[in-house]
Amino acid sequence: MEYDVKDLGLAEQGKLRMEWAGQSMPVLKNIGERFKKEKPLSGMRIAACLHVTTETANLMRVLKDGGAEAYLCASNPLSTQDDVAAALVKEYGIPTFAIKGEDNASYYRHIMSCLDAKPHITMDDGADLLVTLHSEKKELIKDVIGGTEETTTGVIRLKAMAAKGVLSYPVIAVNDALTKHMFDNRYGTGQSTIDGIIRATNRLLAGSNFVVCGYGWCGKGLASRAHGMGANVIVIEVDPLRALEAMMDGFRVMPLAEAAPIGDFFCTVTGDIHVIRYEHFEVMKSGAIVCNSGHFNVEIDLDALYAKATARRMIRDFVEEITLPSGAHVNILAEGRLVNLASAEGHPSSVMDMSFANQALSAEYLVQNYKSLAKNVFKVPDPIDQEIARLKLASMGADIDVLTPEQVKYLSSFDMGT
């Protein structure tokens, strides 16, 4: 078996951490037990480009239990948990290609290693696997029946490909499932981003000005959690509806040019490029802390910052101090990459339980329905979304009411007025 991980000697530690995460993933466990019996993925080779974490590892085990040959590489150079990668290889026989801190050349080499497996299904977190397949391994596309995508950023890329007619197979936008983005993006990103910032800096949030760039589901979660820690939250938006929502939620809204001189913490969660630029850096307070929790590190224009810097030094793990010509300095966390995964452990396993349940069931859906699907981006079917919500509620000891026949009739009629 081919693989590329840091140290197989870390496998026992990784196995224990996988077990710990698995205890909070009852929905995925439930699906895994059915997969073991039914083997719905038999004969399928699945190449996954996801964050190599304890939660992802449990997904990979479920895919293998479902009969698939599963291959895994990292979707971010800094998000890999090396002990987990080792455990997947040594304890579970899953070919894994990921090392925390790998350079870009290694990152894409690992993607190519997964593609060398000649997959039938691709699983992405940011669409790098699919885009690489379409650009450098086109000869393998004929064997691919479909794919899935985990993130907002990836879905944006895939929809652009579909609009231009260059997407070569159907992809299910797992990110757009209600049981994914309403919970993973909001509660997962919200908590894990704060966790990453605190682990990296050990700075107090209470009383600070915390600037959140973007008020989508991730931004909403981050703003809420920063507020809960006592920060004064400022929201930056370009969408008037989202800006209005942020105002109604009790946050200040202003252009970044106004927030830059007063902010203590800045975090981008937009999915767009160069949100924080040098014009903002040069007016920030000395000591300002800047990070990103969007998928790619392009949200912060680091090249422009580095070009103007008079000095750079790593002042502590995951914190780079950049000195500006004025003598002031700003602190960049985790090289501008996902701070929640680079300097912490990513989303809590209980919320990833639903996200990865969507991945597993979407893979099963592709196997069953790919012949009838066009080369486009599709939402997760509503019955899958509903079933995951039902299973999650049951695992939490909650139950809900059922409509009476009278209520069903009323909701489907038009002649019952006042």
Automatic annotation (TrEMBL):
- Specify the signal sequence span: none
Report domain S-adenosyl-L-homocysteine hydrolase NAD binding positions.
185-346
- Reaction catalyzed: S-adenosyl-L-homocysteine + H2O = L-homocysteine + adenosine
Annotated GO MF terms: adenosylhomocysteinase activity
- Write out the GO cellular component annotations: cytosol
Q: Which leading EC class covers this enzyme?
A: hydrolase
- Return the InterPro entries for the record: Adenosylhomocyst_ase-like_sf (IPR042172), Adenosylhomocysteinase-like (IPR000043), Ado_hCys_hydrolase_NAD-bd (IPR015878), NAD(P)-bd_dom_sf (IPR036291), S-Ado-L-homoCys_hydrolase_CS (IPR020082)
Q: Which domain of life is it from?
A: Bacteria
Give the residues the record marks as binding NAD(+): 151-153, 185, 214-221, 237, 293-295, 340, 347
Q: Which family is it part of?
A: Belongs to the adenosylhomocysteinase family.
The role this protein plays is: May play a key role in the regulation of the intracellular concentration of adenosylhomocysteine.
Can you name this protein? Adenosylhomocysteinase
- Which species expresses this protein natively? Desulfolutivibrio sulfodismutans
